[in-house]
Design a protein that fits this description.
Helix content: under 10%
Distance between the termini: 40 Å
Number of domains: 1
CATH class: Mainly Beta
CATH topology: Maltoporin, Chain A
CATH superfamily: TonB-dependent receptor, beta-barrel domain
Length: 620
């Protein structure tokens, strides 16, 4: 079946090429529409943009590696997996979007950050806080927006890079960009072998011996292609294909001596978008298909599922002198085939719509959004948001209030395996989010201070019944509040960047009379997290020193056990002589060889040394 989708994809490209004679020069509107969507929310929601992402990361870095040193995300690494927590929410409360299309698993609601390579994208935007009114289910904590930049500037670029480290990593990356007055394209391929056989201090054994991380091999391949065409001065077409394959051994726990578990993650993602732009209105018509093929095996266990998600979306955008309107209508079809559900094959059809309005003048911008969803067997409330920003001298004061939600996953509703049973009567998780921020921008100093408070009702929790069967219930009320500070400063050739967050997240409703978690900090939510970096640019060299501090986290809800806080230091040096075909980089991770855990009994590497060699050919 997967070859049929690839075949259809190729046909769409040839059909577009047939119209090449009528093409002309213009910047692709798809990029413009995405930027409008994000800047529209930037009046109230805090957004951090990482443009030209490939220049900021090592080619072998995944998104989790990048985020933990450049944002307030707490990244939990356990075995072959990496998940996130932001502003005290769970890993299913971070929504991952690829060109506006959700990537979170239909089965679990979670996305494994190890499955996204940072180097395969041009831009990454972090939309902080809940934003379900715009992006839909799951956007309670944060939204990550991944996108490509294609433009019609004449150029030809070829890149090859090789990454190696002292733990058995070998990663090869090839990218090709070609564009002219009417056609733009990018092709990317990566092949990685990571033995992951690092040394660690085993704190679970007597005398804390030095052990080797075993049964941890990762084999991965990734292919991406993006094509854009200008059909005429008002009509544009672009298409994308993204295929990734991961074969992973599940490492041994620090408390165990043997593991035979393996996990296979294959993904096929296809998107085609048609845009029309004239003096009166701009509209997008986007169709996408996401296929997720998952297999987990162990000695006495086999689990698999195939998820398919189809989106058809129409977006209409109108700009006036002091205001803008935007309408969006979406049809979504989800299909899950799993041996672990009540019914092996489950299908659902959903309809989404929202309307947005923005008013602005020299000092005040007001932004509002209203979302409505029709879902199978589930009532979703109307989701509103209201935000404003006021400019006073060099200061910006912004305020946001909105409602957010997350619908139960397929596993939450229909699971029937391993002593657990889903609950078809589950309600959506709902929250009310408040934010207030003060920011100031000067020539050399920029800073932003945000205070937030979010109350989540109907938090889904799996609990044991009297017969020993586990079942999810809407049981918890969770209150998350705190502050975030982001600052950027430049002095001559030095660049300083600081991210700090304080997050207090507590359970406000006891499950029963014996619940010791009431009023206490949630598991794996650090009170304090901070990262800081210094960048120094010389003629042919670039030096970056970065520091990450993660505060103590509790591993059980009654706070009877915890993981110590830790401090990590990284150092990077690049040799990048202008117009040179070769570029060399050396990166030292965990410079002082510290031993730490982000998830109990799952070790992390001590000192790692990475080498990157890059070859580049450019013609413009």
């Amino acid at each position: 079946m997967k070859y049929i989708y690839i075949y259809i994809y190729c046909l769409s490209l040839f059909a577009s090429l047939a119209n090449a004679q009528i093409l002309d020069t213009i910047i692709l509107p798809e990029v413009t529409l995405v930027e409008n969507k994000l800047s529209f929310e930037n009046t109230g929601s805090k957004i951090k943009n990482f443009n030209h992402l490939r220049n900021l990361v090592f080619p072998s870095d995944n998104i989790g590696d990048f985020l933990q040193f450049n944002s307030s995300f707490y990244i939990k690494k356990y075995g072959a997996l990496a998940t996130s927590s932001f502003r005290g929410t769970s890993s299913s409360h971070t929504l991952i979007l690829w060109e506006g299309i959700p990537l979170n698993s239909l089965s679990t609601g979670v996305f494994d950050f190890n499955l996204i390579n940072s180097y395969s994208f041009d831009n990454l935007s972090i939309v902080k806080g809940g934003l379900s009114s715009l992006f839909g289910s799951g956007a309670l904590g944060a939204t990550l927006y991944l996108k490509e930049d294609l433009n019609f500037i004449k150029k030809q670029i070829f890149k090859y890079s090789l990454d190696m480290n002292n733990s058995g990593l070998n990663s090869n990356n090839i990218s090709l960009n070609y564009s002219n007055d009417y056609f733009a394209s990018s092709i990317y391929f990566r092949s990685t072998t990571d033995k992951n056989n690092f040394l660690f201090v085993n704190t679970s054994r007597p005398n804390n011996p030095i052990d080797t991380n075993s049964h941890a091999l990762i084999l991965s391949k990734e292919f991406k292609s993006n094509f854009a065409y200008k059909l005429n001065k008002k009509n544009f077409l672009n298409s994308s294909l993204w295929i990734s394959k991961y074969d992973r051994e599940i490492p041994v726990l620090m408390t165990n001596s043997f593991s035979n578990a393996k996990q296979y993650d294959d993904s096929y993602r296809y998107l085609i978008n048609y845009s029309h732009k004239n003096s009166f209105v701009v509209f997008n018509f986007k169709n996408s298909l996401i296929i997720e093929d998952f297999v987990y095996t162990d000695t006495d266990l086999y689990s698999s599922y195939i998820n398919k998600s189809f989106y058809s979306r129409l977006n209409v955008y109108k700009s006036l002198a002091k205001s803008t309107f935007e309408l969006e209508f979406t049809f979504n079809n989800n299909y899950v085939n799993s041996s672990s559900l009540i019914s092996q094959n489950i299908t659902e059809n959903n309809f989404f719509s929202f309307i947005k309005y923005k008013y602005l003048n020299k000092k005040l911008t007001i932004n509002s959004c209203l979302r409505h969803e029709l879902r199978k067997d589930l009532k979703v409330p109307i989701i509103p948001s209201l935000s404003a920003i006021y400019k006073l001298n060099k200061f910006n004061f912004s305020f946001l209030i909105n409602r957010n939600f997350r619908v139960p996953t397929f596993n939450d509703k229909y699971w029937a395996s391993s002593g657990s049973l889903g609950n078809v009567n589950l309600l959506s998780e709902e929250s009310i989010n408040y934010e207030f921020s003060i920011s100031r921008s000067r020539n050399k100093l920029n800073y932003d201070l945000t205070f937030f408070s979010q109350n989540v009702d109907n938090w889904i929790t799996w609990l044991p019944l009297q017969n020993g069967i586990w079942m999810p219930e809407n049981i918890k009320n969770v209150w998350s509040r705190g502050l975030e500070l982001n600052s950027y400063m430049s002095i001559n050739k030095l660049l300083f960047n600081l991210n700090y967050s304080f997050t207090k997240t507590t359970n406000q409703t006891p499950i029963n009379n014996l619940d010791n978690s009431f009023g206490k900090q949630l598991r794996y939510v650090p009170l304090n997290k901070c990262n800081f970096s210094i960048k120094y640019q010389m003629k042919d060299f670039e030096l970056i020193y970065s520091v990450l501090y993660n505060g103590q986290v509790y591993t059980v809800s009654d706070q009877s056990n915890f993981l110590d806080d830790y401090l990590l230091n990284n150092f990077l040096i690049k040799y990048l002589k202008p117009k040179a075909r070769f570029e060399y980089s050396l990166k030292v991770i965990n410079l002082f060889n510290n031993s730490y855990q982000s998830y109990e009994n799952y070790p992390n590497p001590r000192r790692e040394i990475l080498l990157n060699i890059q070859f580049k050919l450019t013609k413009q």
